[in-house]
Design goal:
Elements (H helix, E strand, L loop, with lengths): L5 E7 L1 H5 L7 E7 L2 E6 L3 E11 L5 E7 L3 E2 L6 E7 L4 E6 L2 E6 L12 E2 L1 E6 L11 E7 L4 E7 L4 E8 L6 E5 L2 E5 L3 E6 L5 E6 L9 E5 L2 E6 L3 E6 L9 E2 L6 E5 L2 E5 L3 E6 L5 E6 L5 E5 L2 E5 L4 E6 L2 H10 L3 H10 L6 H21 L3 H10 L4 H5 L25 H5 L3 H18 L9 H15 L4 H6 L6 H10 L3 H10 L3 H12 L11 H10 L4 H14 L1 H4 L1 H4 L13 H7 L4 H14 L5 H20 L5 H17 L5 H8 L5 H10 L3 H11 L3 H11 L5 H15 L7 H13 L6 H7 L10 H41 L23 E2 L5 E2 L1 H23 L1
Helix pairs in contact: 2-3, 2-4, 3-4, 4-5, 8-9, 9-11, 11-12, 12-13, 14-15, 19-20, 20-21, 20-22, 21-23, 22-23, 23-24, 24-26, 25-26
Length: 863
């Protein structure tokens, strides 16, 4: 696809150059800065000064001032011209002779500066000498197969090297030590410093003129077979794809990033970046095409033209206007080396952003997002396309000049509903990605507000996550938007995030009361309860406690029971205050007291007594109802019984006074047990209720966490109750036998044998007697084992004592006691097993101290 990269401008007209001399033809051209030199076929050098001017319409034009010209006097064409501005010299090839002339006056330099027998020459634009006051040139000598390297100074030339070649070269280019030569059948690379060479590719010099052109450092452009422009490096490889020329190319030039080629009727312009043809200019009678320091000059035999490159920015904008995104980016990135770094970064970012909007307009969202990311797009540029998404507080204005031609989303999609939906889905995805990155820095309010509005409009599942987590949504903008789309639960969360909990709860209550329609959460009531249970604002909890408990006492009481355990004292609710408040809610107060007593295990008599009374009252209330549920009655009685058994903090006498006149005999027995009035309890269980199993359980739970003797006492009392001679019956006898046989390990066998009647058979008490015998034997054997262990330990101590007594002890007046460090005055001493002698009184004092410390430690442990 074409692009206008160059404009053709006439620089030197026919009349200005030759006047009325029709036979004068242009042979060669050189341009250095504003100086334009033209060599003609009649041995003249013409000098012009070029001034580039910009017209109002943006086009370029040139004004030319003719300077003095020079006739060289050889009557031969001037074949080549090369300027050496550092030397103020012009290197001229005429009649196979290189000579030097002054760049301004065009006067010849004396004969010491000439080189004869030259076919052609080239200047080394990457010199290796390092001398700024000389120019390196390479000449092809008339001598067959000879190349020479010269140093050209201000007033002399000096040969440096001469090399032989396998064939006579016809064209040459030089870069550093590397020569690129065109022979009759092929191109080669030759290192004149080392003499090594590298064949490139063949060509036929009879069919076409060879072209050897330096492109850059150690890289050359060559006219290859098949009309290809081939790139080759000094290493003999090609790092770029070839460009496609015509078969009859006669000249080439390079103006990065373009390669220009001249043939019989056209100038073709290819990109070095993607090797595509970008522009074709019709040009007849073309004779010369050369580039000079960014200028491209085109000439016929009579006139000189300038190929003026259009500014890269204009070329890129033309490509973008044609929606050729990839070509524009390739061109921009390829021009990096020709633009200052800071300016390039700004230009490159803008081009990427423009490219992103072009692809966005084509609904190529993935590609657009990548360009937005690389171009560091201000995300508000994208948001501003969507009507009303930016908050009213935003100060954003679109980039100028604009990055796109879209007024808004409706303009971009032409009102297509499906396209609008896709664009909104893309923006949601894009904003989600960038809101936590540096892209959103400085515009978090704009991003989050826009995202919330999109979520609300599309019913997106992430709306709740956004408003419930850290966000920068503008409240005044978001409230009407959430109300418009009936997202009242999310609105409450947003108020909560903005520390307006009262407003949030009011909205949620309206949803529960069906004053507002929002089906976001079916368990909204439970959510409100949880919210209040973790709310640190006591005023808010009390404000809505009545509403919550009126809805559901069982769930509502959680606002008091599920509060954090580690709550600060300043916000901690006083249980006494809560209990007083809950008196009008019978279920809630029971649940709350259960929480205090059973869950939190608060050891306070008032709470335990209150809970026991509530259990009792609830049971009595149910019992008094004619149509009561037996299951519920059993459940409530079971809770009462369990609590009376497990708690030891309630006022037993008070509860007993309330129970005595009821049918709760078993509970009375439990209370008597708490008062240690076990005979009354057992009388109720055995004689009134005749519940022998309950009597056994009574003994077990009453003796829990008590010593064995206490348990034995209870079981003995129960057995005595069974065996009461005044109340004997077969039923009690059976219960007594079962008790003995099932709990034989608790009873004192001797005491039992005295108690049981003589007429009971051995077989009846067989399990009890076996267990009693086993217990007695086990006790005897354990005693024997303990005695044997003690005897063994005593023998060990005796053995150690004998060993100590068998050793000789040397004691002198010089040896001191290890405890008081005084010497021994008499032969009485104590000898420890580790060989340390001490005074007898010191040893006795030490043993006394150790004993006292042991007693103190034991007392402390006991406490």
């Amino acid at each position: 696809m074409s692009i206008k990269a160059f404009e053709l401008c006439l620089a030197v007209e026919r009349d200005l150059l030759m006047g009325d001399k029709a036979r004068i033809n242009i042979e060669c051209i050189e341009c250095c800065g504003k100086n334009l030199y033209i060599g003609t076929n009649d041995c003249f050098i013409f000098h012009f000064l070029l001034e580039e001017k910009s017209l109002a319409n943006g086009k370029q034009t040139f004004s030319v001032q003719r300077q003095p010209h020079k006739y060289l006097g050889l009557k031969k064409p001037v074949n080549e011209l090369k300027a050496a501005s550092a030397l103020n010299r012009l290197i001229v090839l005429c009649d196979n002779t290189i000579m030097l002339v002054n760049m301004l006056s065009l006067d010849l330099i004396p004969s010491g500066s000439k080189i004869k027998g030259v076919v052609t020459f080239t200047v080394n634009e990457n010199p290796v000498s390092g001398d700024p006051f000389c120019v390196e040139i390479c000449v092809i000598s008339i001598k067959k197969r000879t190349i020479q390297i010269y140093m050209v100074y201000e007033d002399k030339v000096q040969i440096v090297k001469e090399l032989s070649t396998p064939e006579q070269p016809s064209a040459v280019s030089l870069d550093g030590y590397f020569l690129c030569l065109a022979f009759t059948t092929q191109y080669i690379i030759l290192n004149y410093n080392t003499g090594t060479s590298q064949d490139l590719f063949p060509y036929d010099s009879e069919e076409k003129k060879p072209i050897v052109k330096r492109v850059g450092r150690e890289e050359f452009l060559l006219a290859g077979p098949g009309g290809l422009g081939m790139f080759a490096t000094a290493a003999g490889v090609s790092q770029r794809a070839p460009v496609h020329w015509s078969e009859n190319v006669i000249g080439a030039a390079v103006c990065y990033p373009y390669v220009l080629a001249l043939d019989d009727g056209f100038v073709t312009i290819h990109s070095m970046l993607d090797q595509q043809l970008k522009q074709t200019l019709s040009f007849r009678d073309g004779h010369i095409l050369q580039d000079f320091e960014g200028k491209v000059i085109l000439a016929t035999t009579k006139e000189v033209y300038m190929l003026v490159p259009l500014p890269l920015e204009r070329q890129i904008q033309d490509l973008l206007a044609s929606q050729r995104v990839e070509e524009a980016i390739v061109l921009a990135e390829g021009a990096r080396r020709t633009i200052p770094k800071d300016k390039f970064q700004v230009l490159h970012r803008r081009i990427l952003q423009q490219s992103g909007f072009i692809l966005f307009g084509q609904l190529q969202f993935l590609e657009a997002k990548e360009y937005f990311r690389k171009g560091h797009l201000d995300v508000r540029e994208l948001i501003s396309l969507y009507p009303l998404l930016l908050p009213s507080t935003s100060t954003f204005t679109r980039c100028h000049p604009p990055l796109h031609a879209f007024a808004d989303l409706n303009h971009l999609t032409q009102g297509d509903h499906n396209k609008i939906i896709k664009c909104k889905q893309f923006l949601i995805s894009y904003l989600n990605e960038v809101r936590t990155t540096d892209v959103a820095n400085g515009c978090k309010e704009d991003v989050d507000t826009a995202l919330l509005k999109l979520y609300a409009e599309t019913g997106h599942e992430s709306l709740l996550d956004l408003v419930a987590s850290e966000n920068s949504c503008v409240l005044v903008d978001c409230v009407p938007w959430l109300e418009k789309y009936h997202k009242y639960f999310a609105l409450g969360l947003l108020y909560h995030y903005n520390r307006q909990d009262d407003t949030a709860i009011q909205i949620w209550i309206k949803i529960v009361n069906r004053d507002l329609q929002d089906n976001t959460r079916a368990d909204l009531f439970e959510y409100i309860v949880d919210f209040l249970s973790f709310c640190s604002n006591q005023e808010l909890v009390w404000k809505y406690a009545d509403w919550v408990l009126q809805q559901n006492e069982k769930i509502g009481v959680h606002i008091f029971t599920r509060r954090p355990v580690n709550e600060d004292k300043g916000v901690k609710l006083n249980p006494d205050v809560v209990i007083k408040y809950l008196h009008k809610y019978p279920q809630a107060i029971v649940f709350y007291l259960e929480h205090l007593v059973l869950d939190r295990n608060i050891q306070k008599e008032a709470f335990h007594t209150h809970l026991a009374v509530l259990y009792l009252e609830r049971f009595l209330d149910l019992y008094s109802q004619k149509k009561h549920s037996s299951d519920e009655l059993s459940y409530v009685r079971g809770k009462l019984r369990t609590f009376l058994q497990q708690s030891s903090l309630y006022r037993v006498h008070f509860i007993l006074g309330k129970i005595k006149d009821t049918q709760l005999d078993l509970e009375c027995a439990i209370l008597y047990g708490k008062l240690e009035e076990h005979d009354k309890a057992m009388n109720i269980l055995v004689h009134q209720l005749k519940d022998f199993k309950a009597a056994e359980d009574y003994c077990i739970w009453n003796s829990k966490d008590r010593d064995f003797s206490y348990r034995q006492k209870l079981f003995h009392m129960l057995l005595s109750t069974y065996m009461d001679p005044l109340l004997t019956s077969s039923e009690l006898s059976v219960a007594a036998v079962d008790l003995l046989n099932s709990h034989a390990e608790v009873f004192d066998a001797t005491w039992v044998l005295r108690l049981v009647p003589d007429n009971w058979s051995m077989q009846l008490l067989c399990p009890f007697l076996i267990e009693a015998m086993r217990k007695s034997m086990h006790s005897t054997r354990m005693s024997q084992v303990a005695l044997a262990l003690a005897h063994s330990e005593n023998l060990i101590y005796k053995h150690e004592k004998l060993k100590c007594q068998a050793e000789k002890v040397m004691l002198s007046e010089k040896k001191g006691c290890q405890l008081c460090h005084n010497t021994f005055n008499n032969p009485e001493f104590v000898w420890y097993s580790n060989g340390v002698p001490v005074h007898t009184h010191c040893a006795m004092k030490r043993n006394k101290n150790l004993t006292d410390m042991k007693h103190l430690r034991d007392a402390s442990n006991h406490t």
